[in-house]
Design the sequence.
């Protein structure tokens, strides 16, 4: 199960999607919006994605992680506004044993951070905002 979703992530559905009596270990990773954003308090993150390409890449990442670690993977990223304290990404991996489940989960997460065509705008409590790339580096416009 992979997807881009608006609104809260259904973690129980992701766990159910990877459930398998042959897999005794399941890991769940939730990446949430932090209130702290350097010296400024963060109100929310706003994610935009290149939808079709992002879905294709999520599937490639899930398939890679599953093959590499003999695991089942569920991977969902939110788009739209994600308030502080709410998850923006969920990775669930089920494998035969915990080392493989943890490795599959981490591989998928790192690949998403590195390759997924998703951009985020940080909205600060003081009313300011800035766009960041997938690694959290501020994007500059052509004049900047």
Sequence:
């Amino acid at each position: 199960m992979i997807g881009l979703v608006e609104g809260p992530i259904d973690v129980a559905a992701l766990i159910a999607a990877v459930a398998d009596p042959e897999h005794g270990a399941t890991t769940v990773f939730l990446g949430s919006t932090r209130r702290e954003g350097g010296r400024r308090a963060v109100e929310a993150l706003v994610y935009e994605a290149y939808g079709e390409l992002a879905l294709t890449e999520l599937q490639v990442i899930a398939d890679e992680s599953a093959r590499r670690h003999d695991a089942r993977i569920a991977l969902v990223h939110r788009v739209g506004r994600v308030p502080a304290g709410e998850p923006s990404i969920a990775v669930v991996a089920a494998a035969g044993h915990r080392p493989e489940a943890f490795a599959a989960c981490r591989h998928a997460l790192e690949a998403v951070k590195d390759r997924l065509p998703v951009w985020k705008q940080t909205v600060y409590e003081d009313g300011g905002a800035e766009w960041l790339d997938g690694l959290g580096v501020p994007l500059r416009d052509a004049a900047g």
User: Anything to note?
Assistant: The first helix runs from residue 11 to 18. The helical segments are 11-18, 51-69, 98-115.
